Amino acid sequence: MNIANNIAASIGLKIRRFRKQKNMTLKDLSDRAGVSQSMLSQVERGIASPTIVSLVSIANALSMSAAAFFEDTTPVGEEESPVFPSGSRKVLRTENGLVLLPLTAMTELKENTIQLTEIFLDPGGCNRLKPTTHEGVERLAVLEGTLLVELGHALYHLEKGDSITVNASLPHRISNPGKEKAHGVWMIVTPRAT
User: What number of CA atoms fall less than 13 Å from residue 177's CA on the CB side?
Assistant: First the structure.
């Protein structure tokens, strides 16, 4: 199996695993993602490779980030290690000046999915243009610089050493109002579908 086929097979297995963890049928995921059921079945079996657009749609339908499909670099068929090697950290950059560097693989627990990420935010940058909501809780700690957290109708200015817990069901957004790059640690806890 070549590298591309191995990656496609790994992504397919992860889609199936996340779908089953959320108690979704192929049809449920197909309907939510706008991807045909036969194509989705082929992707899960590693027969077909999804397009980037399809992969993002599938991730959104599963209430997760598309990056989760690439975070675990364990080859298909090998036993998973509890170690998250520093070399497997994939840097994600947004056009809004945010750099995300995963500190751990996405952890699936009985009740929650936990993602721990190191963030760097340019002056004037933000994690998204408008406040958004989702299920779960976010925790943010500032290691360097300043960050502004919009939460509902409130604004919270965080300095080095400050941290905040955010009820993610309220509209929220993170930005850097300072003149230097901000550095922090961001944890997102999302409840698993029951």
Answer: 11
